[in-house]
User: Fold this.
Amino acid sequence: MEPQTRFNLDDSVAAWREELAQHPGLNAVDARELETHLRDGFAELKRNQLTDEEAFLIARRRVGSPVAVADEFAKTSPARLWSSRVFWMVFGVLSLSLWQTTFGLWWAVATGDSGGFLAINLPYGERAVGEVLFLFCVLATGLAGLWFFNGCFTGIFRQTISRRWILGMAVTTGILVTLSLQNYAIYILDSFYSKKSAYLDTHGLHVSNLFSRIYGVVGILENNVAFEAFLFLCMLGLVLWPRLRRAGTKRMRAA
Amino acid sequence: MFSRELIAASARPLLLSILAEGESYGYALAQRARQLSQEQVKWTDGMLYPVLHRLEEEELITSEWREAETGRERKYYRLTRDGRRALEKEKAQWLAAHHTLLQLWNPKLALT
Assistant:
């Protein structure tokens, strides 16, 4: 027989709240209110001779599945849902752009070439490797963002995966895989026709002088920084806007 | 069994009517709704809250976090004057719909 782990109410409630927190329709106050509901139900069911675990499962079921409840909340406040969606879109584009700048800066320092990392100046095989590294960094940033703003990202991998999520991930993965495969295929074809050495000569790494490196760095910054600052301000606005609005209505009511 | 749409539509007058009996909080409201419907309407308790919050936005009810006898904080809801007026309007509408259907289904009852 498998050893049974002891049921702990606070842990279970915390896990449940974590699940709720995955959904943008709900804010912390909503979640807190639902938690008191869950605990009230638990306390009452406990009085009917149920074990902790049984009482928790029934109380949880009565509140409803986090996905369904959050959907219902989202319907009543579509603005909150959309501001959250836009926030994550902006976050995604910003992290993509920031990594592009980082890789571009490194590339500019190394070679003096300001074309940016994703420009054609790398042999295709190396470019494929670089792309994988680049995309890994972007993905890691996304997960770090989820962890930072939602307190967790476990929900993505657990019950809350929806069909839309899977579709989105499949499309993105498909595009990225095609991109990398295409570059790799060009590389393979190139070497197949034994042009590789000549290719490296024309496109390979060449170290240039200090001036061109500085020029490259300036070029990269010029291209990206204004755009990134704009995205950052958008994100800041999305975070601050509901607070400002709440403060505004409070003042209006007081007046 | 009630359809989803009907459950959603009836939530508003139901919550207003229960709150007309006096101040209450989410869990007690859900209990009362369950008891009144005698399990005929399958409420999911969590669905009540969005409706409550919308009513609050419309200023038909007000809310307040207060410590309950259990020591935990609870959010209590109370009907406002606008809420009472809205309830009267809801009542008239639902009774009119009810009356219309009753004439077709049970003419004797509708006459009284």
In short: Residues 154-160 of chain A have pLDDT under 50 and may be disordered. DSSP finds ten helices and no strands in chain A. The radius of gyration of chain A is 26 Å.
